[in-house]
Structures are given as structure tokens and as C-alpha cells.
């Protein structure tokens, strides 16, 4: 297993009657782009706020960079950069002014970090342009530059695409991937739209009504969403032989109940059905399967997902 950067242990947060987090055990490993996905009110911000000490848990604990004690966590949190509530931006200040302001506020020595952060987010050429004239995407990138000032190892972004136009979303996604690739940054990023996370995340945590329903890698998710034909016939062994001998494919699996999931020939249904019926097999079920991302997610949170 990769080294864990962040783990939560039965993390629970209650607000009077409301359970915002219910015994959440989440693991973010070094190098992950961890997509934290859940509907509005699922508990994402609450967890991120606890990790960054903006809120306290009712019970359970957080381990950051191996530290769980109060004193250890104070040190470990210095290795985090976060945008949870957007940082205050000042309309009359330039990008560089902002970074200087936040550098001093956080006591980070030396000005070199400013040019470095500006270059990382592509704002190095904004010169005298004031924040009031920045697009939303530029403001978002300035926020990122502020979060990157202290050379963090873990970057936490709470719903960073909220309010961005499609171009801004693509820009942010590419930036996140670049920071992960070039700086080796571990990134925990929340969203309520799975497809937005899908083109960058290496792993997902699905949270619903305060409970972490599933942690799944990018590959596992793709596997679950892979298009296939679901076939049930009266003689499974014979059908499998036909798939291999006549159609020349081994890209299938047989489930415990005898259903065959055929991953090839998805767009050539006729050829498959003809091959089976010509060999006197009785087709009991023959249908396309495989969710797209959003329907997988919807079913998962609806608790209706099978196999
Ligand atoms: N300070 C608070 N007082 C009372 N209830 C709260 C507080 N903060 C959050 N909650 C409740 O806890 C639940 C989880 O909220 P949270 O903000 O963590 O969800 P979220 O997944 O981040 O959603 P969103 O994207 O809408 O912020 C919600 O039902 C919310 O109403």
C-alpha cells in the first residue's frame, strides 16, 4: 500500500439532531487525486473542515502524515494547502500583491515562493491587472496560488469548480493534474458531479448522508461502468465455446448466476445473437449493460446497485 497521507477513523460529527458525518473511515494515499463525491449536504465540507481544523469532530479521529495527537496535528497541518472557504480577495490588489499579503500573514520567509506560485497557476503575466478585472477562473487560480504558497504536500479543494464555466472547469482540471504530476502533490478534491472528477481523479470516495458508501479506484470505477452485453442462455458452457471459437473473443466473464457479461461486440448485437441461436441455444436474456458514470453514482447512493 502507498503511504497514507490522511486517514479518518470512525469520524463522526453531529449538529444537534443532524448527523453530518457518521463513522467515516477514509484513506488518502500519497500521490492520489482523491475525488470526494457527494450530493449537497452529504458531509463533504464538514469532513474537510475537520481535517483543516475549522471544525471539531464529535467523535473519531484524524491521522495526518502519521500524526494523530493534538500537537502532532498542528505540525502536520502546516503541510496542507487548502481552499475550503474562498480566500478573501481584494479588488484593488494585483495577483502578486495578494500573494505578498498572504505570505506575510502566514509568516512564510522569502519572496521566491510568490513567483513560483504565480507561475504554477499561470498568473505570472497578469502584471498590474487588479483582481476586480479577473475572470472567475483567474480568481480561482489566484486562490490556488495562495494555497500553494507554503509548498504543501496535500492540497485540499472543496468544490473548486462551483460557479466556473466549462472552460474554467477544464482549466482547473488540467492544473490539478499538472500539480499532481509535476510536484507530486496529493490532492483531495470534492464535488457533487462525478463526471467532473472523472477526468482527473485516481480514486473516489462516495459519501451520502454522512456515510462513506464506497472507496473505489479509477480503474475499478471504469470496470464497473464498462459497456457490455448481459446474456443468459440454457447452456452456458456451449455459449462460451461459441464466443471463443466462432466470435474469437475472450473478453467476457461468467457471473455466479450464469449470466455472461460480454465486453466486446457491444455494437454488433446481431452477430452475437445469431451465433448463439444458429447453434440452437435458447436465449433467456439478452440486453446491454454498463452504467454511465452518473447513473452508477445515482444507483450507488440510491442503494440499488447490483453485482
Ligand atoms: N454549522 C452547522 N450547523 C448545523 N448543521 C450543519 C452545520 N454545517 C453543516 N451542517 C449540516 O451538516 C450536513 C452536511 O453538510 P456539509 O456542508 O458538510 O455538506 P456538503 O456535502 O459539503 O454539501 P455542500 O456541497 O452543500 O456544502 C448538512 O445537512 C448541513 O446542513
Automatic annotation (TrEMBL):
An example of a Pfam family matching this protein is: ABC_tran
Domain ABC transporter residues, every copy: 6-234
Database matches in PROSITE patterns = ABC_TRANSPORTER_1, ABC_TRANSPORTER_2
Ordered alphabetically, the record's keywords are: ATP-binding, Nucleotide-binding, Transport
Mind telling me which CDD domains this protein's record contains?
Answer: ABC_BcrA_bacitracin_resist
Recorded GO molecular functions are: ATP binding
**Family per record:** Belongs to the ABC transporter superfamily.
Its name, as the record gives it, is ABC transporter ATP-binding protein
Q: Which organism is it from?
A: Paenibacillus rhizolycopersici
Amino acid at each position: 500500500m502507498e503511504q497514507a497521507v490522511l486517514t479518518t477513523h470512525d469520524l463522526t460529527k453531529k449538529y444537534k439532531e443532524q448527523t453530518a458525518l457518521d463513522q467515516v473511515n477514509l484513506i488518502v494515499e500519497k500521490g492520489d487525486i482523491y475525488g470526494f463525491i457527494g450530493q449537497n449536504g452529504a458531509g463533504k465540507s464538514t469532513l474537510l473542515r475537520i481535517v483543516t481544523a475549522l471544525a471539531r469532530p464529535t467523535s473519531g479521529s484524524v491521522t495526518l502524515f502519521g500524526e494523530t495527537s493534538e500537537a502532532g496535528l498542528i505540525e502536520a497541518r502546516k503541510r496542507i494547502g487548502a481552499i475550503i472557504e474562498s480566500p478573501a480577495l481584494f479588488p484593488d490588489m494585483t495577483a502578486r500583491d495578494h500573494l505578498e499579503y498572504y505570505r506575510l500573514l502566514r509568516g512564510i520567509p522569502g519572496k521566491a515562493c510568490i513567483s513560483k506560485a504565480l507561475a504554477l497557476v499561470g498568473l505570472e503575466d497578469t502584471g498590474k491587472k487588479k483582481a476586480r478585472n479577473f475572470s472567475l477562473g483567474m480568481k480561482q487560480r489566484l486562490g490556488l496560488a495562495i494555497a500553494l504558497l507554503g509548498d504543501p504536500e496535500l492540497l485540499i479543494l472543496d468544490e473548486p469548480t462551483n460557479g466556473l464555466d466549462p472552460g474554467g472547469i477544464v482549466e482547473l482540471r488540467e492544473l490539478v493534474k499538472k500539480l499532481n504530476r509535476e510536484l507530486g502533490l496529493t490532492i483531495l478534491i470534492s464535488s457533487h458531479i462525478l463526471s467532473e472528477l472523472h477526468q482527473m481523479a485516481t480514486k473516489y470516495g462516495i459519501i451520502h448522508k454522512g456515510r462513506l458508501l464506497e472507496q473505489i479506484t479509477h480503474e475499478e470505477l471504469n470496470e464497473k461502468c464498462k459497456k457490455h452485453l448481459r446474456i443468459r442462455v440454457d447452456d452456458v458452457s456451449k455459449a462460451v465455446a461459441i464466443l471463443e471459437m466462432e466470435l474469437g473473443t475472450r473478453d467476457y466473464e461468467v457471473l455466479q448466476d450464469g449470466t455472461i457479461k460480454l465486453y466486446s461486440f457491444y455494437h454488433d448485437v446481431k452477430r452475437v445473437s445469431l451465433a448463439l441461436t444458429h447453434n440452437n441455444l435458447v436465449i433467456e436474456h439478452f440486453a446491454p449493460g454498463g452504467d454511465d458514470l452518473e447513473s452508477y453514482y445515482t444507483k450507488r447512493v440510491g442503494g440499488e446497485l447490483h453485482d
